[in-house]
Design brief:
Length: about 900
């Protein structure tokens, strides 16, 4: 199929294979709505191929393409019985972007195109409505100047606001035709000043400018950020939809709205949406006027004083309700629909799968199975595993005392606390300094995407449940309270005021996106649990997957959390994390700084009971499930005393002068500690450390046996092995201690010994290493670091350049890289050949990343191990991997 343009009614549509790839989501769905016989204004789609050609052609549209566009326009003219640029009955069009997947608000749209000083009069004549015609023209100048000519929107907004102030009115709808006429003059003046040219009067020039601008918006900063966050390839490009305008701003029998077939915030099966009488689409989305509800029910629940659409336009409401049902049945998913009512006639402008919160995504998927619209398999495949993490985020502890200072709409659930900031750049800056923020804006726009991502939560004073802030926050899983008219924001002074108090930039507030509450100060939160629909979906997922899911945990609390979230074992217990406790760190420092073996043994003796106690607790919680305990791994200097007080404490405990301590610290200094004296190299140099750790494990096991706890089989893991001899020496050490502890207690114990594969040499020499290993666990954090030779701690500084230059599609510390993947495959094959029974797992951060989990599932690993809060994500991702095979 090489037609670059497709009319919505074209028969050729049947020949197109991947219609969404070609026409973009919006175009494909418009075509689908036409097929369903729904009222769609005539139009055509300029395919994504044209966007690709545009970029290849130095961001130009060839004359051939322009000619074809004119031809397509003639089809619309015929259908609408209007003519583009005509002085009697002018056709006005909308030019809207539409990528393969929806990127709400990220790219540009232009409405009312085709208006100029002449056609505006024709439109007024034709409709006998001068006010409407002038209002449309000023909207067009405003939008076109912003999107195509690059003039900041506030120049125009300020003019309107000042004019309203002088006239003493509040709303745009209070302005009449003469007011708009004056403003149009002022707008054109701004254009002339800024561009040194008159506002374009030639309608074809306008059209060309608009199409190019939509294509160019594919490469805008905000679209790029959105693509990066959502892993959308830049080659896709966007389609452009050119469609005859229908008008929601012709008077009180006109309206425009956005409606979801189910409630996007909680998933309830009820129509949920907003509309504005006498308005155009951007008024709803931009939040310049706070819209009214669609249904009586929603009105009642929010105790809104304005009338719902069900009451003001009952006929159109009934028709809309019917259409929503048709669309949901057809797409077998919740839909997000845009519509316009022109002189009481309903027109459908767009339908797409609605963005929803993670909680409602789960509820909707489970409900659709109940309603027999989709299968369990489809339900499992529909949920984005990464989105589940937000369901596990803490909610406000209702028992704690809270000081509610205002309320808004519960736009995106979850609780978040942080410092108040009034700009996205500030949110990003503080995020870089690991500080939590709440982004407070009158309303957000696509320019705020980076700030919304950086902030922990978003609060706006304007806009409804479908405003930009609400939609984007839900998509990102950020808590959001929108449209709080109770707060008054002053950007200049960096404060917001409520009726009784003033909140400054930097003050801490909490927002509760589930109830809309704004609270002063930080509020304690509670851990959620997996129950209801979430638990149902997870159970379905568990039936589909083969891969086991373990967790990385070393404290009883984390272990318990992970078990509650469904972990089937511990895949990595980093024992060094147990050393940082205040009670223990001094003994650890004694151990490191001791010059003699005896002194070291003395310090280790003090550590033994602590380690043993931790292991007992963890083994108890794991109740028979496997536990991989890794012996000490990081470079010792991480534990060294850093400040004067710490040095003094160690000096007293060890009876060494502070000078001696300082010189010992200097001795231990390494230029490249990540590649230094760490991992099993410590076990080789100081076997007594590993001996103590093994003893703690075995004695804990014996304690559990004596106390008749359900026994676990510990898997003792040696870190950073690169050669056969290393693992052999370490295995002998483990066996020796096991034998000793068994003899001392006259009790037999079972255990396994294995290694991490986290160095390229270990992967390549896996046959030899496997001779001495019961299991391999891929430590992909270090394996990525050592394969690339990129420091995992410093890569953040230049990774963005690598992604920008398309050297990496994605951060290799997040998703397993191909080259690292090949090393894993080599190790796996060689390991299995040597030892058929070898257990294989992964415990790097990649163990919680859905794409990497897919890779591990395909390779046939036994398990992935991830942090406790990623366990449900991994359970779902593993099921999806299996279902996609
Ligand atoms: C790894 O390297 O992947 C790993 C799990 O170990 P750590 O992150 O503790 O170095
Ligand atoms: Mg490691």
């Amino acid at each position: 199929m090489n037609k670059l343009f497709i009319n919505f009614k074209s028969k050729e549509i049947k020949k197109i294979k991947n219609i969404k790839n070609y026409l973009g989501g919006k175009g494909a769905n418009l075509v689908e709505m036409v097929k369903l016989g729904l009222p769609v204004p005539p139009g055509f789609t300029i395919s994504t191929k044209v966007c690709q050609i545009f970029y290849k052609n130095n961001k130009n549209l060839s004359t051939k393409i322009l000619k074809d566009i004119k031809k397509e326009l003639q089809v619309i003219e015929k259908e609408s019985k209007k003519k583009f640029g005509d002085l009697k009955n002018p056709l006005l069009i909308s030019v809207r972007s539409g990528a393969r997947v929806s990127m709400p608000g990220m790219m540009d749209t232009i409405l009312n195109l085709g208006l100029n000083d002449q056609t505006v009069l024709a439109l007024a004549n034709k409709t006998s409505n001068m006010r409407f015609a002038k209002d449309s023209y000023r909207r067009f100048i405003q939008m076109y100047s912003n999107v195509v000519l690059g003039i900041e929107g506030y120049y125009f907004e300020e003019l309107i606001e000042n004019f309203k102030l002088t006239k003493g009115v509040l709303l745009d709808t209070d302005l009449d035709e003469n007011d708009w006429d004056g403003l149009i003059r002022d707008f054109k003046e701004v254009v002339k000043n800024k561009t040194k040219k008159d506002f374009p009067q030639n309608v074809f020039e306008q059209l060309l400018g608009a199409i190019s601008a939509v294509f160019l918006s594919w490469e805008s900063k905000r679209a790029k950020t959105y693509r990066k966050l959502n892993q959308i390839p830049s080659e896709w490009g966007t389609a452009v939809n050119v469609q005859s305008m229908v008008f929601g701003n012709m008077g009180s029998d006109c309206a425009t709205g956005v409606v979801f077939t189910r409630n996007p915030a909680n998933g309830k099966n009820e129509i949920y949406g907003e509309y504005l009488i006498n308005a155009q689409g951007e008024d709803v989305v931009a939040g310049t006027r706070t819209p009214q509800y669609i249904t009586k029910e929603a009105n009642k629940n929010s105790s809104s004083k304005k009338q719902s659409m069900e009451e003001t336009m009952p006929k159109a409401f009934i028709q809309l309700k019917k259409i929503l049902r048709i669309l949901e049945k057809h797409y077998r998913d919740m839909q997000d629909v845009e519509f316009t009512i022109e002189k009481s006639k309903l027109w459908m402008l767009q339908t797409r799968s609605g963005k929803r919160t993670s909680r409602s995504a789960v509820k909707i998927a489970v409900d659709l199975v109940k309603e027999k619209l989709i299968t369990k398999k489809e339900a499992v495949l529909r949920i984005n595993p990464n989105s589940l993490e937000t369901l596990l985020h803490p909610t406000l502890d209702e028992k704690s005392e809270i000081n509610v200072i205002g309320k808004g709409l519960p736009a995106s659930p979850g609780a978040a606390s942080g410092k108040v900031v009034f700009s996205s750049d500030e949110a990003e800056r503080l995020n870089g300094m690991m500080q939590d923020t709440i982004l407070v804006r009158i309303e957000t726009s696509p320019e705020d995407i980076h700030g919304m991502h950086a902030a922990k939560g978003i609060l706006t004073s304007r806009g409804g449940m479908t405003s930009h802030a609400a939609v984007v926050a839900r998509g990102m899983g950020r808590p959001c309270v929108s449209g709080s008219s109770e707060i008054n924001i002053n950007y200049e002074e960096k404060i917001f005021k409520t009726s009784s108090l003033e909140v400054k930039e930097g003050d801490i507030i909490t927002i509760d996106g589930s109830t809309g509450r704004i609270i002063l100060g930080e509020v304690s939160t509670v851990k959620p649990e997996i129950s209801g629909d979430f638990s149902k979906l997870m159970n379905w997922a568990d039936k589909f997957r083969k891969l086991k899911i373990r967790t990385n945990a070393e404290t009883p609390m984390d272990t318990k959390t992970a078990r509650d979230f469904g972990a089937e074992g511990i895949g990595l217990c980093r024992t060094e994390h147990m050393f940082f406790d205040e009670e223990r760190i001094l003994s650890v420092r004694e151990m490191i700084l001791s010059k003699t073996k005896e002194k070291r043994a003395n310090a280790l003796k003090k550590l033994l009971p602590h380690q043993k106690k931790d292991f007992i607790e963890i083994f108890k919680i794991m109740n028979g499930l496997p536990v991989t305990v890794r012996l000490l791994d990081p470079p010792l200097h991480e534990f060294l005393p850093k400040n004067e007080k710490e040095i003094n404490d160690v000096s007293n405990a060890l009876d060494l002068s502070t000078k001696e301590i300082q010189s010992r610290i200097a001795e231990l200094h390494e230029h490249n500690p990540m590649l230094g004296h760490r991992g099993c190299r410590l076990g080789i140099s100081f076997p007594e450390i590993y001996e103590m750790q093994c003893r703690a494990i075995f004695e804990a096991l014996i304690y559990c046996k004596k106390n008749k706890f359900k026994l676990i089989i510990p898997e003792i893991m040696i870190p950073l092995v690169s050669s056969e001899v290393e693992i052999k020496i370490m295995k002998d050490l483990v066996n020796r201690i096991a034998k000793k502890v068994q003899e001392e207690n006259k009790i037999n114990i079972n255990y396994l010994v294995g290694t991490m594969i986290e160095l390229p040499r270990a992967a390549i020499k896996a046959s030899e290493i496997a001779k001495h290993a019961d299991f391999f666990s891929f430590g992909t954090n270090d394996l990525t670091q050592t394969t690339f030779g990129i420091s995992r701690d410093d890569s953040g500084k230049f990774l963005n350049d690598y992604i920008e230059n398309k050297i990496f599609d994605i951060d290799p510390f997040i998703t397993i890289d191909e080259g690292v993947g090949e090393l894993i495959e080599i190790a796996l094959k060689k390991g299995k050949k040597q030892n058929k029974k070898i257990k294989l797992g992964i415990c790097g951060e990649h163990g919680g990343d859905p794409k990497s989990i897919n890779f591990c599932s395909k390779l046939g690993l036994n398990y992935v191990s991830c942090s406790p809060y990623r366990v449900p994500v991994a359970r779902l991702a593993a099921a999806q991997a299996q279902l996609k095979e």
